[in-house]
Please model this.
Amino acid sequence: MKNENSRIQEIFSKSIFRGEVRFMEPMSDHTSLRIGGPAEVFTVPQDLISLKNMRLTLKREQIPFFTLGGGTNILVRDGGMEGAVISFNSFRKIEVLSEDDEYVQLSVETGTPLQRLVNFSKENGYSGLEGLVGIPGTVGGAIVGNAGAFGYEMKDVLVLVEIMNAEGEIGKCKAEKIDFGYRRSSISSAEVILSAEIRLKKDKKKNVSTKVEDFLQKKWKQQPISESSAGCVFKNPPELYAGMLIDEVGCKGMRIGDVEVSTIHANFFINKGRATASDFLHLINEVAHRVKEKFGVVLEPEIKIIGKDVN
Ligand SMILES: Cc1cc2nc3c(=O)[nH]c(=O)nc-3n(C[C@H](O)[C@H](O)[C@H](O)COP(=O)(O)OP(=O)(O)OC[C@H]3O[C@@H](n4cnc5c(N)ncnc54)[C@H](O)[C@@H]3O)c2cc1C
Model:
């Protein structure tokens, strides 16, 4: 019997998809943490037909898959990922659908970098996304995790999403049908979001750009933006700040292997060089343990931990 790896290579070597296909691709090259073992197959479908063919093949062959945005909110374990990773890198279009004196409605493909959308809004005087400035990753990842900061959240501007199901059929889902919460949504991992319609309020360009610049300044002061991280490791417990609790148990600057609790913001863990997922998980456990011991508070990860351990 052929092993799973060569079966997958054989299936994906047939040219039924337009776009890139790479085997045993290190996920450390596709995550902001620069951590993660190889994906059995890493794909960048070039168009909708290719994406549809890919979904049908994955379903028929019962191959698991993971939809990747910018890889800025995930920790991939050192053993890598079974099955396929689908990147939305080729889906990056922003289009104005309609506008009146007060509002504009945009269609945005979900591989669009969130900061491209924030800049587009700033340049055109469209208000609603100002607080999301400086959040890395894609529009798709921002929708699934309901990304937010400074009182702004992705859900507040979302009108609907276009989703492709496992049969390759495309349907629209209104935002009010999705259950959004703090850094979460009810969108399941089987649902692939193709694009989103968002509604923004027209304003003076200067007003939008002043807010964007102010929020960006604050973000630079509060977060270690230039270092390799995945953003906040833990969700804030109700009415508390995870970063403050971690600081108060003395974990700022704590290090396991090459992973360090940031000295700027204790809820950011930094890859200082050659960190492994195993180091990262040890640090998560140690910090969570200390916070539980001292405050009785259970910290819940905000980052998504995926993939398998090294055998
Ligand atoms: C320096 C730094 C600062 C950050 N600051 C913030 C902040 O202020 N606020 C905040 O909320 N977050 C912040 N983050 C975390 C992160 O950037 C956001 O959560 C971001 O929205 C994740 O987007 P992504 O495209 O990288 O998603 P990924 O990490 O690639 O994926 C996250 C999830 O979304 C799913 N997904 C992605 N695209 C699709 C799609 N098209 N269809 C279906 N599922 C999809 C993935 O399967 C996965 O489950 C920060 C991260 C860093 C590194």
Q: What stands out?
A: The longest strand covers residues 192-202. The longest helix spans residues 277-295.
